[in-house]
Each structure stands twice: as C-alpha cells, then as structure tokens.
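Q: I'm writing up a methods section and want to include an example of the input and output format. Could you take the sequence below and give the corresponding predicted structure tokens, formatted cleanly so I can copy it straight into the document?
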Amino acid sequence: MEGHTIPSFKGGTIPISTEVLDCLSLLDIVWSNKFENENIDPDDAKKKEADFLKGAPPQWLHFYWSEKEATQFVTRNGYNDLIQLVNKNKRKIWSVIDMPLIYQPGSGGSTLAMQVLWRFRKELRCARVADSALDVTELSKQVVKLFLVGDDWDQNTVLLLLDIKEKMNEDQPFKRILQEHLIKEINGQNIKANIPVVIILNCIKRDFTRSDEFSLEANLSEDEEKRLREKHNEVTEKHEGYDKFRGFNRMLGNFSEKPHYRSVLKCAKPLTSSPQFCMLPTPNGGKIQVKKKDIFSKSCLDILWANMYEDEPLDRLSAKDLECEFLKGGQSQWIDFYCLEHEGSLFVKRDLYDSLIQQINVQQKSQWNVTTINLFHHPGSGGSTLAMRVLWDLRKQLRCARLQPDKTSDIMIIKNDIISLFKEGGEKNHNTVLLLLDVGEEGKKISRLLHKELQKRSVGDNIPMLIIMNVEGKKTIPKSTTVKLKMELLQEEITLFKEHKAVIKDKHGEDSENRAL
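A: Here is the clean output for your methods example:
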C-alpha cells in the first residue's frame, strides 16, 4: 500500500518516510492522500456518519466519505471566513500566526475547524492537537519537523488545529506557551523562511450569552456593493436630482468622501409621535395595548411601538420626500423604515445586520438579566442607521426603545423607565426590552450602571429584562481577524440545513433526520 504524502510548497505532494513518521507521534496529521488508498466499508462509513448526525464527535472519515459520495457536508457560516483568513495568512512572512475561532459550546466549532483542515490538506501540512497534557517542548519540535520535511522548496506551512479543553496553568493558556516554544525552536534551528512555519487555528470556547462586540468598517463588502447597486437603480428611477444625494453617493463611493450631516427634514409633513392605541409585544408572539399611555409619554425612552405608524394614512407620510432627505444625508428616523416597508423600497443592509439579529436571539435565551452588544463604527458609515433598522425589525418581538439623552442622564430614572416597559401588561406579559444607546462614550458608563442596577433577575422571570445595544462612533477601528460561531443559526444557515434534511432522510431514515437537524 502506498505510504502517506504531504503537500510541497512548490506544488504536488511528497512522501513521508517511516523514520520521520515515527517522530511525529504527538500530531494527528491529515495526510494529502488520507483514506485514498484504503478500502472503506460503505456500511461502516454510513454507520459512522449516522452516529455523527446523532451527536458523536466528528472524524476525518466523515469529510472523505462526503466527498467520495458527492454528498454535501453542510458548513456553518464561518467556514468561508476561515478559508479566506488561511489564504491571507499563508502569504505572510511571520513565523507563527495565530488565527482564533471563538465558538459557543455545542455550535459545531470542532467540526468547522476540522472541515477547514480537510479543505487545505493538499495545500498545507495539516495537523491537529487535542490534548493539553502533551510535552509542549516535544510538540513544538514535531511541528517544526513537519514543516521541514523535504528539500528547501518542499518545506511548507503547517496548519495546526488546537482544540483543547484545559489550560496549561492558571496564568498562561496552552496556546501562548506553545507559541513561545515554537518561536524558540524556529530560532534555535535558524530557520529563515519567507512563508509562515505554522498557522495556529486556535479553537476557543466562549459564552456569548452575556456580551459581544462588532465593528462596522467604512468600506463595503462585495455583497454590500451588489445590494447598493440594486438600490442605485431604484433611486435613479424614482428620484430626480439624485446626484445631490450626498449621503447615498458617499456610500456608493465606498465612503471615499467625508461624512455630510443633515438633521432637519424640510420636506416631511408633521407626524404624530405615537399611535392612538399603543401596542407592545408579548413573549408568546401576541400584542397588548398599553393602558396608561401618559406614563410612557413622559419617559426618557423613545419607545418603538409594535404598531408604530400603522394608523397613519400613507398619503400623509410623504414617503418619497422623507426618503429624499435621508438619501441626502439626513439623520435616520423610525418613519424612514416604515416608508421603505410600505413603499416596497429596498433597504441596503450591511453584512453585520444578520450577525446582530443572531446575537440578540442568543441573548434572549441568556440566564443573565442584562446583556450587552457593543457596535463600534466609523462616523458616517451607517452604524446608527443599522442599529435602528435592527430595532425596527424586532419591534413586534421585543420591546424596543432608544434612550433620549436630552431628557435625562439620571441612571435611576432610566432604570425605572426600563422596568416599567418590561413589566407593562402584568406578570404573564413581561417581555425583554431592547435598548439602543447611541450617545457616544457615555454609552459605556450607562451600560455599566444598568448592569449593576438590574443584574438580579426577579423570581418568576425566565427571560432577560434588558438587552443593550450600545453604538459608538470611533475614528479607528481595528479589522477583525476572529471568526465566531454561535448556537443560533443565521437565516441562510437555516435554509441550508432545511434543504439538507431530504438528503439525510433519504440516506439514514426518519430517525437520523430528526436527531440531526
């Protein structure tokens, strides 16, 4: 039987000798030709796949068999992000590169990381470490040895998956100690490579139910540019003088111009600030009418009612004029989103939109009474508009509100208004408040104080009282190099898994299909 092979930097693969192989015992190596020269029992492969679908740990055989049978192995949303990061990092000249995958336990982080290694097995030298009890000095020697196999032009980057549970000690995680030993070993052998010696794909478990943060950069992705072009076609057909829409055209130019602010809507007709009968959502998907509307009229919260503007005749809304002012650079108002919905106009969603919705869904199931989402954005990049759109779309699910800083900064008044909004409708109708803080650096202080004041959940409540979305503009936002994986599926992932159900059912029957998805 043909021996194991690993990829060469100059292309193709090279064999690995038995002598070298014996020196790599601490590594679970994904050979370039793994399983290709083995006689795999189809029934055994099918059984192992069924076990995996029922919850068993992933094995390399699952990926091989999926390819061989030409059946799709469903990937989570972070897969493409990790592929892009690996491709970017392998062109760098740093000896050791860290690439974190932060995942919520049970979300499939280990499976996703193994999929990435399987994808690169014919390009990079892929190996996994799953035991932190190993001798770190010896492990670092073996990783470097794997890199050095072959002549100078064969030597190739090691893509090393760390998927361990324990820390090395109380002070330093295993990864940090391994990095130090790797650098020491590389320097000790005087390796001068123009490619990375090792890229560490570091799996880190994290509980996202209490907090998370996001960064909105002042540049557009390919998908965002595509959506923007569609909106541009609509704008040119709908509006005259669209060349004066400085806000929209700045976005169309990928934020190349400085932001232009307009806060006065000249074309909009007066509108009532709230409906005649104010409705709030309940946890079971229903709605209740607010009995004492006057109490909330004095609130420091700008409440987004579940039926906001629904009793306003469309002909009074001057939808076209409102959109015109917004596209010129006017500040977003709740009415803008209502008009877009009812006029059937496109809203240009930033890519972060789905991730923010996902994180809110994660925090709705949290055991914490107060949770936080921090959204950092470049001024003029649409951070405030994005946050308002999220609240608008969730107004019939959560009790959404925005803090009006001009009314008060007294934390006790803010706290009491939040409690009143949460409890409106009686104990059976208590529902989570989604609060938008868009008050600059002051938002961190308010968020911290609300955590302190509302941290204790009342007896009988099984949902968080408050989810804070704190939006803050920053001139400098570091580009994220971290991939996150959460229990809550994105909408496109839900669609993909539903499509895969038929394949699972056909191969493994009803029982496996129900357990797997």
